[in-house]
Amino acid sequence: MERLGSVQNSLSEHHIAFGFPDALFCSQMITAEAVTTYIRHVFPDAAVTVIDKTGTQDHLIVRVTSTGFADKNLLDRHRMVYQALAAPMKDGRIHALEITATTPDEVKK
């Protein structure tokens, strides 16, 4: 056990030395419900679908439908979703996102 602790400390020091904060190596996983909560905090009317793309719960497909995207271009919509998920992106619970962001009117078409 003592050896394992020294290896973990050594790895932690190397991550910092190479500019990788420990949070990027977070072992926590995020649930679909938590992702939905983060998004609905910014877009209360959102219909959210979260799909675990790789089975590791950190590469996600996120589909968000909200009136908050009205009159916003694709890049702005993606920025808005990234902003809503800033905390789990920063701490490493989400590593990659594939985003679809639409308005309710676009879904009806």
* Quantity of strands, as a count: 3
Number of domains: 1
Percentage of helical residues? 40-55%
Radius of gyration computed on alpha carbons? 17 Å
Strand order of the largest sheet: 1-2-3
* Biggest sheet details: 3 strands, mixed
Order of helices and strands: HHEEHHEH
- CATH homologous superfamily classification: BolA-like
Distance between the termini: 60 Å
Mean pLDDT: 83
Quickly give the CATH architecture.
2-Layer Sandwich
CATH topology: GMP Synthetase, Chain A, domain 3
Write down the overall geometry: globular
Low-confidence stretches: 1-25
Binned strand content? 15-25%
CATH class: Alpha Beta
Tally of helical segments: 5
Name the features:
GMP Synthetase, Chain A, domain 3, 5 helices, globular, 109 residues, 3 strands, alpha+beta, disordered N terminus
List the helices and strands and how they pair.
Elements: H1 2-17, H2 32-42, E1 47-52, E2 59-65, H3 74-84, H4 86-90, E3 96-102, H5 104-108
Parallel strand pairs: 2-3
Antiparallel strand pairs: 1-2
Structure description:
The chain has 109 residues and is of the alpha+beta class. It has a single domain (28-104), classed as BolA-like (GMP Synthetase, Chain A, domain 3), CATH 3.30.300.90. The chain has 5 helices and 3 strands; from the N terminus they run ααββααβα. The longest helix is centred in the first third of the chain and has 16 residues, at 2-17. The radius of gyration is 17 Å and the shape is globular.
